[in-house]
Write a structure and sequence with these properties.
single chain, alpha+beta, Aspartate Aminotransferase, domain 1, 6-stranded antiparallel β-sheet, 8 strands, globular
Length: about 130
């Protein structure tokens, strides 16, 4: 698996985000993830900041991944959340401007979404991942 936890410096990675707004959003999301998970953020691969971890099996092998993660990309910030949990659709309906992928939520600007709903979404995803 390509995306594995590393010893790379989260602060250095976030400090390297060139867009000031996206960089500020990334620091805020990191703080949210650490608060919700109770765990420090770590780098997963070259561009994902994640908290916690879980194991899953694929192809007969056990893999590990961050329980919740995000990546501040050039066009938007990607949140990596659980694929399916009961609260997902309802919370996404209340979140504010976003788009979704399979297990991803894409945000252009953090100040345009409801912070309490985002925190509830991240917490519910984490609970589902931890089982």
């Amino acid at each position: 698996m390509k995306t594995q936890v590393s010893d790379a410096d989260v602060d250095a990675f976030l400090g390297g985000v060139t867009d000031p707004g996206r960089r500020a959003d990334a620091h805020a999301i990191r703080a949210l993830y650490e608060r919700v998970s109770g765990e420090p953020a770590r780098m997963w691969g070259a561009s994902i900041v994640g908290c916690g971890e879980y194991a899953y099996r694929t192809g007969g092998k056990e893999q590990r991944m961050c329980a919740i993660g995000f990546s501040p990309r050039k066009a938007e910030t990607v949140l990596y959340l659980a694929l399916d949990f009961p609260e997902r659709e309802g919370l996404l309906g209340q979140l504010g401007p976003h788009r979704t992928g399979v297990g991803c939520v894409y945000l252009k600007r953090l100040d345009k979404v409801d912070g309490a709903v985002l925190e509830a979404l991240v917490a519910a995803s984490l609970t589902a991942t931890r089982g």
